[in-house]
């Protein structure tokens, strides 16, 4: 299974479990054990192979990672639908409604959420996003085509929709734009390298990796001196206003994850940790007084590394599914 498909498959199955119940989830998991692409069909096969898909039909439950135009047409009442949108970490997502034919008075809806939300857990968390949760939803039935274009605050967004009448639906286009200072992001892949920069802004930024990983931090600049310490929940970084923390847990929301380690002072040179959690987050807290920067590499842990942890390893607090 390719890394990008694993990310999509993992989240869509969680969402299916939330919408349809545990039994339906188990049936789908058994089917996809034989051919995981049965859930998505040939279009996603081509998308994962790298062939651009500029136009295609949207499914009731879908994952989109490429710019293009997408059309949903109901063939029967579709009451619990969602599309997960993800771009590169250094990109914004813009959703543009090209055509909408739904019955808002009859109970249909079409909503964009700025981020991802699953079973009540949000990314970015309420602590890290600049808007309150209620303002992160944009409802077509309230705003109409006065807001034809909606841009996300980070590299992920969601579309929720319900369409009762067969033949009704909507068409929208997705484009991506560069984000010079990405603050919150979800990695599309289980390995990579990223630099998070917060330039004189009072904000919190989280980078999420939805795998058990090895994190290697090569450079951290916070405006004060050297040090790395394991997390003591009662002590933290001792009131320092600028720091980086490593978080881990089974869910999506960084504010509900277990704090694993604090990086309280600037340093140069590798600091490495293995984190055996389903989701790992590098989170920077900034006071706005400094230009803060952290550079890190990450890769997915191999099964033997999860079974035989060594060195700086945090695994026992996470109920890893791998």
**Largest sheet data:** 6 strands, mixed
CATH architect. name of the largest domain: Sandwich
Distinct helical segment count: 6
As residue ranges, the low-confidence spans are 1-6, 12-49, 225-234
CATH topology of the largest domain: Jelly Rolls
By DSSP, the count of extended strands is 23
Beta-strand residue fraction: 35-45%
Q: Can you write the helix and strand succession as a string?
A: HHHEEEEEEEEHEHEEEEEEEEEEEEEHE
Spatial order of strands in the largest sheet:
13-15-21-18-19-17
Q: What number is the mean pLDDT? A: 80
Helix content: 10-25%
Globally, the shape reads: elongated
CATH superfamily of the largest domain: Spermadhesin, CUB domain
The gyration radius over C-alpha positions equals: 20 Å
Assign the CATH class of the largest domain: Mainly Beta
Work out the oligomeric state of the chains in this entry: single chain
Query: Which structural class best describes the helix and strand composition?
Result: alpha+beta
Number of domains: 2
In angstroms, what separates the terminal alpha carbons?
A: 14 Å
What would your notes on this structure say?
- The chain is of the alpha+beta class and about 325 residues long.
- The protein folds into 2 domains: about 180 residues, Spermadhesin, CUB domain (Jelly Rolls), CATH 2.60.120; about 130 residues, Spermadhesin, CUB domain (Jelly Rolls, Sandwich).
- The protein contains 6 helices and 23 strands.
- It has a 6-stranded mixed beta sheet, with no helix packed on it.
- The two termini are about 15 Å apart.
- The relative contact order is 0.14.
- One of its GO terms (molecular function) is corticotropin-releasing hormone binding.
- Keywords: Disulfide bond, Glycoprotein, Secreted, Signal.
- InterPro entries: CRF-bd, CRF-BP_C, CRF-BP_N, Sperma_CUB_dom_sf.
- One of its GO terms (biological process) is regulated exocytosis.
- Belongs to the CRF-binding protein family.
């Amino acid at each position: 299974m390719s890394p990008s498909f694993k990310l999509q498959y993992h989240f869509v199955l969680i969402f299916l479990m939330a919408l349809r119940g545990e039994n339906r989830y188990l049936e789908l998991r058994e089917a996809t054990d034989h051919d995981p692409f049965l859930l998505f069909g040939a279009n996603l096969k081509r998308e994962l192979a790298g062939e651009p898909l500029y136009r295609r039909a949207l499914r009731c439950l879908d994952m989109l990672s490429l710019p293009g135009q997408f059309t949903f047409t109901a063939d029967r009442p579709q009451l619990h639908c969602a599309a997960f949108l993800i771009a590169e970490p250094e990109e914004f997502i813009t959703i543009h409604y090209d055509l909408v034919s739904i019955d808002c008075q009859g109970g249909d809806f079409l909503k964009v959420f700025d981020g991802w939300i699953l079973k009540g857990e949000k990314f970015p968390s309420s602590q890290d996003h600049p808007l309150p949760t209620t303002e992160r939803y944009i409802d077509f039935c309230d705003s109409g085509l006065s807001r034809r274009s909606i841009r996300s605050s980070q590299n992920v967004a969601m579309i929720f929709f319900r369409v009762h009448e067969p033949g009704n639906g909507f068409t929208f286009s997705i484009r991506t734009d560069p984000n010079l200072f990405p603050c919150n992001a979800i990695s599309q892949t289980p390995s990579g390298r990223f630099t998070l920069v917060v330039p004189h802004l009072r904000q919190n930024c989280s980078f999420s990796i939805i795998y058990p990983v090895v994190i290697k931090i090569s450079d951290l600049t916070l405006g004060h001196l050297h040090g790395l310490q394991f997390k003591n929940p009662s002590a933290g970084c001792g009131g320092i206003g600028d720091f980086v923390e490593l978080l881990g847990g089974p869910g999506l929301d960084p504010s509900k994850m277990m704090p694993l380690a604090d990086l309280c002072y600037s340093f140069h040179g590798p600091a490495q940790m293995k984190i055996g959690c389903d989701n790992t987050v590098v989170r920077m807290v900034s006071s706005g007084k400094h230009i803060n920067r952290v550079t890190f590499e990450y890769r997915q842990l191999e099964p033997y590394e999860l079974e035989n942890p060594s060195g700086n390893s945090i695994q026992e607090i996470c109920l890893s599914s791998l």
